[in-house]
UniProtKB/TrEMBL annotation:
Multidrug efflux pump. CDD domains: MATE_like_1. Its main location: membrane. One of its GO terms (biological process) is monoatomic ion transport. This is Probable multidrug resistance protein NorM. It comes from Sellimonas intestinalis. Belongs to the multi antimicrobial extrusion (MATE) (TC 2.A.66.1) family. It is found in: Cell membrane.
Length: 452
């Protein structure tokens, strides 16, 4: 069986780095993808950013649902490949794709039918902001199927040791998005001005092209994708395994987004400009956590294959090497956000009235970047073993704690900054607790089942 990168033999760090670098580059491309939208939308005004921020919460929620198929598929394909079971890996891949298709279509229909009530949850102040948010939601989440498929393809290919295809596909999507954003937002050439709707259309079209690139590329991966038969009846026993692995992470991500929505509703009480600050600020700080998320995906596949092959020592060494890298990256991001908040935020929203809130957000959230990197990488290590429940419990419980902390702190002179501090304190605690838990964990007693 042909694998792009041998994760089972040779020096640990070079093998891990060869897999991780394209994934991290993919994450950076995805981050650039989001930031490009924010730069152009910010040129419309803070109201447009607020509308995209509110609607974007549901796209974020969709990612949590997509994790179910992606995580289950990536982990089980990795286990099967490590155990030398290519046919079983093919079965996991097929069912993960089918699961992704079902949830993507279902979620898209729900968003199209209930766009009004969904946006109404945030209690936005401006009628224009509400209308724009509903339009953005209908387009991006109504056609979310492309995003779901892209995520599950990325997970399966990463489990195989192929992270380059995902990078190339995402990079092509970025280029398309960069070209289409100003054309569709401001109406260049024969295109009319579509503002927020234009940004949404550019995003979905770029995602659809990424899906097409994946479909073309996987034809060159016969080990898993040859004779996959997407439209055959799903296998109930395999679906149960995928859901068992992916459900805790999916619930964690959805709970995280749900809590963030409640926090966003609190933020909206300080005005639509505060919602815009949260949207832009979260995109800026994604430079740390999206990169760490990419490295965590590499750790997941590395540990999954080595654990499936019974090589516990190599799996642990992979985790230690990964932590060294992400700690250095997290520390760098912390310094950048604390020292240079004003020039960074001004790139996205140049309005003088909004800038002070943006500076406060970046400086406060900057404190937590190192710990977020620790949390994300350790969660990837846990999931590589098929143990997604422990990190989900830790992350969800400490994320829920943000609500009472925020309610307490906004009643103090901190005001809006109290909300940002509740997020920071929660992230610090999650990073410390989860990393300590993994360090004390033994692999004994954990079984890998690759046979249905």
């Amino acid at each position: 069986m042909r694998q792009k990168i041998d994760l089972l033999n040779g020096p640990v760090f070079p093998s891990l780095a060869k897999l991780a670098v394209p994934i991290m580059a993919t994450s950076l491309v995805q981050m650039a993808y989001n930031l490009t939208d924010m730069i152009w939308i910010g040129r419309i005004g803070s109201n447009a950013v607020a509308s995209v921020g509110a609607a974007g919460m549901y796209m974020w929620f969709a990612n949590g649902i997509a994790v179910l198929a992606k995580m289950g598929g990536q982990v089980k394909v990795g286990h099967a490949l490590g155990a030398g079971e290519p046919e079983q890996a093919r079965g996991y891949a097929r069912n993960a794709i089918q699961l992704s298709l079902f949830f993507g279509l279902f979620y898209g229909i729900i968003c199209l039918l209930f766009q009004g009530p969904l946006i109404g949850f945030f209690r936005l102040n401006s009628k224009t902001v509400i209308q724009d948010a509903e339009v953005y939601l209908a387009i991006t989440c109504g056609l979310v199927i492309f995003s779901f498929l892209n995520q599950v393809f990325t997970g399966i290919l990463t489990a195989m040791g192929n992270s380059r295809t995902s990078f190339l596909a995402t990079a092509i999507g970025l280029v398309i998005n960069i070209i289409l954003d100003p054309i569709l937002i401001f109406g260049i050439g024969p295109f009319p001005q579509m503002y927020v709707a234009g940004a949404a259309i550019a995003t979905v079209f770029a995602q659809s092209v990424v899906t097409a690139v994946f479909l073309v590329s996987i034809r060159r991966e016969p080990d898993i994708f040859m004779n996959l038969h997407f439209f055959t009846r799903p296998q109930t026993d395999i679906l149960k395994e995928l859901i068992q692995i992916g459900l805790p992470s999916s619930i964690q991500n959805m709970m995280f987004t749900g809590i963030s929505m409640v926090i966003a509703r609190m933020v909206a009480s300080f005005g639509d400009a505060a919602v815009a600050v949260q949207k832009v600020g979260s995109q800026i700080e994604s430079i740390s956590w999206m990169t760490s998320d990419g490295f965590a995906a590499a750790v997941n596949s590395f540990i999954a294959q080595n654990f499936g092959a019974g090589n516990e020592t190599r799996a642990k060494r992979g985790y230690r090497c990964s932590m060294i890298v992400v700690l250095l990256w997290g520390f760098f991001c912390t310094i950048v956000l604390i020292v240079f908040p004003a020039p960074i935020f001004r790139i996205f929203i140049p309005e003088a009235a909004v800038l002070p809130m943006g500076i406060d957000y970046l400086r406060i959230l900057g404190v937590s970047q190192l710990f977020m990197c620790m949390e994300i990488t350790t969660a990837g290590a846990f999931s590589g073993l098929g143990r997604t429940l422990p990190p989900s419990i830790v992350s969800t419980s400490l994320t829920v704690a943000r609500i009472p902390m925020a309610l307490l702190l906004i009643s103090t002179p901190l005001g809006l900054n109290g909300i940002w501090w509740s997020i920071t304190i929660s992230s610090i605690c999650k990073g410390i607790v989860l990393t300590a838990a993994f360090k004390k964990m033994t692999f004994r007693g954990i079984k890998v089942n690759t046979h249905s």
